[in-house]
Amino acid sequence: MNAYDVTLVVPVYNVEQYLQECLDSIAAQTVFERCEVLLVDNGSTDGSYRLCAEFARRHANTTVLVRRGGGAGAARNLGMDRATSARITFCDSDDVLPPTALERMLDAATTTGAQVVVGMMETFPKPTNWAWKGYFGKGDRTFGSVAELPELVHSASACNKLFDLAYLRSHGIRFAEGVHFEDAYVGVAALVLATRLALVDQCVYQYRKRAAGNSTMDAIWTRRQNYWDHLQLVEHLYRMGAGLPDLSRAVLDLFLVRSYQGFALRAPDLFQGAELEDIYSRCRAVYRDVEPELVLRATADARHRVAYLAFATGDFGLFADRAARLHKLSVREGSAYLLGSLPDRLAPLARATPFTAHLEHVREVPGSGTLRLSGRFEVGGMPLVRPLDGHLSLRVRGSRLSVPAVQVRRRDMKNTRPDTEWGGFTAELPLDALRQGVHDLEFAVDAEGGQAVTPCLVAAGYLRGARVVEHGGVRVVPHWKGKNRAILMVLGTASRMGGRRTVLGGLLAKDAKHVLRRRPFWKQRLIRLLTKPLKPLLLGRDIWLFGERADTAQDNGWHLFRHVRTSGKRRGAYYVIRAGSPDRAHLAGLGHVVAHSSWKHKLLMLHASALVNAYDIDTYMLPDGWDRTRYLKHLNWRVGARRVFLQHGVTDKDVSKGLHRNRTGVDLILAVSRDEGRFLSEELGYDGQVEISGFPRFDALTPGPGSRTILFMPTWRAYLTVASYSRDGGGREAREAARDRFLASSYREFMVRFLNHPDLLTALDQYDYTLEFLPHYEMRAMVGEMVPDRKRVRIVDQNEISVQEAMRRCDLFVTDWSSTAFDVAYLGTPLVYAQFDADEYWDGHYQKGYFDARRDGFGPVCETVDETVAEVVRYIWGGCAREPEYLRRAEKFFEYRDQRNNVRASGAIESLVRGSKH
User: Fold this and answer.
1) pLDDT tens sequence across 535-548
2) How far apart are CA 176 and CA 180, in angstroms?
3) Cis upstream peptide for 703 (omega within 30°)
4) What are the Cα distances from residue 864, in Å, to 712, 749, 837, 871?
5) CA–CA separation, 43 vs 243, rounded Å?
6) pLDDT tens, 237-272?
7) Which long-range contacts (CB under 8 A, 24 or more apart) does 795-801 make?
8) Dist. CA 126–CA 601, nearest whole Å
């Protein structure tokens, strides 16, 4: 008789940080004494083996095994071979078992005789909504085949299951070794072969979703070997399922299609030639006879189905280069199809789903009498790498109006997904042709066989930029209804609409309905109505609400606010900042400083004519507790405040994914040069909304007296920290993961080596210089321990000294990719670029723009620590004098140097607000 009822196998590899929590959860099992625990060290080089050995010394039912090489699969197989009990389960060494997990699964196995018992798996710190979780919540149940609950096949892990060990051995079910996706060799195979399955309606496994960026899943599409490893799994399961009953075979096919669809889609991007042909031929052997109906069920959309259509038709060209084959739609019964001539059996695979259109921007074209609508569209499966063959149009239902839509190239969409580059569109509506009422908007494509039509949906940019447009006695309100359907509300005056309700009445009626129905932000809508008559007296006629980050006053927002409150004498200007912020002292004496999230802040948001910020308005200017989406839908359009983005750095890189006009809703953006203005206008969609004024903060950029100081100010990396503007704050797990990435990063390695370089330290002593390290706002919590304990190297903080003051007083500036290099160049201070991680930076943070530091920059560009130190020492030796070539480049780049940037910026806002009045 076996001494234990269940064997628990735990493969262990370099998880010292999480292992103790896992082991504690194992020891806390209610049936721990009935459990054989096999800890299999897979060649750990950290303290993992020590923790395993200590656990085994305390618990007689635990054995530590060592299996070097072969990955987790080999470690688990060793555990299977050494197991002595009748049943077996598995746990990864960074995950957690709930206390009754083993007891509940053992009870189910004993009661039902099931070959496989499956329990609920939860992920933490954030939950995952797998489709197969829908089978739970209905009590414990028993099934005769996985065909009775087909989605369960996608629960491929071996860790939320208890297996009959004799059953696994009789079918030769083992983990693959030396490859990824080894779990599915056991998890999926055991499910589809089983003739008795039991479901335990309880969480039996807690899977840690690590954000460290080093797991198989983090690099699933970019790691080439994953394509071969998963194809090997597919072929193994395909062969194994040859004798399955039809229903079970269909379930297996469901897994084979769904699990490989992402690889089949992306393989042509990573492979070519013989390798791509090999992938295609092997996939075709597996998938050519899979029923189209099952492919439809298993795949996410038409984009993923094209590969399976190629496998079914034997069309390698369609698989390898779909952009060359797909460029013209056909229409059948109102639906768009990627290909026109296919057998009826295969035609559903070519249906273009999803077919969607989103409106992102609506504005009146000055002096034209037209309304320009801009947006994006997707025709599922169709690579939009060039203009479509076919006529596009925008339809306004209720006005019997249809106008041409022009397909446009979008840099931001290309950067998000290359096959959507030409997925933008614009259309112009004649305002005089709009009738009073509420009009649905539709996007249409004319193609061979007819017209395909889809309703226009609203995007965030549409909501941010929604403004009431007045024309000839009519007000047009871009709005939404139902599930994000885009509409235009057309409200007319008595003179225009033959005595019917007035414009004012129409908007007041909407306010009244909103309040009476207690819809989101109804209290704010009511307060706005009640306080509007008193606004000019109490707050000022035109309210400009300034801010930066919620706790800062150092950048363009502060400088421009100071100007309009002193030189401009603007009564309606206010600055929002948190009450306890050290930067509040910078605002002393200016008046109209409002505590962030106070009642006055909220009141000002109800009446503002302009929201003026150097950072993201929705992230930093909304009062705490105001839901962003609900604010945009229910209040933003009604207030109608113009959005002014002052910027906090020169836009020299391609930041279109976050800064494109169709995403931000910004009405005015400032620039410092013609090159920057052209880039913003032509590539980021700010057509007519760029003001080349110079930055307000540049007016105070005058060189200070030499301080024999070198300022080192690298920028941040989005992939090494949790940004302050993260909507959920990241959570402890995300912050810890970011810390792990940072500690292992080339960023940290460069900082440590540079700050501790002996040649640099010697030069500082020899020439009597001090190096100040000013970390980026987003990196401040990460970098403290990198600074050596030396009197000539010190870390400074933005609460101690403003960025601008630090730049003014330095004699030499060192940065990597930071846009503060432009400030320093404007000052005339020499600088050194330390661009040590180019590939990593462009891949994970930003993408290249119009400015190249080697060609256009204001100082030498270095790629290594030694090169950077050598340039710093050279400048120190030469008295920190800037070379004429870099001076010439700076003079060419900046449009203005007359200290009137604030005047131009405030004038531009004045014109914007004045022009928006109705």
Assistant:
1) 777 777 889 999 99
2) 8
3) no
4) 15, 11, 9, 11
5) 39
6) 999 999 899 999 999 999 999 999 999 999 999 999
7) 796/772, 798/552, 798/554, 798/774, 799/582, 799/583, 801/774
8) 33
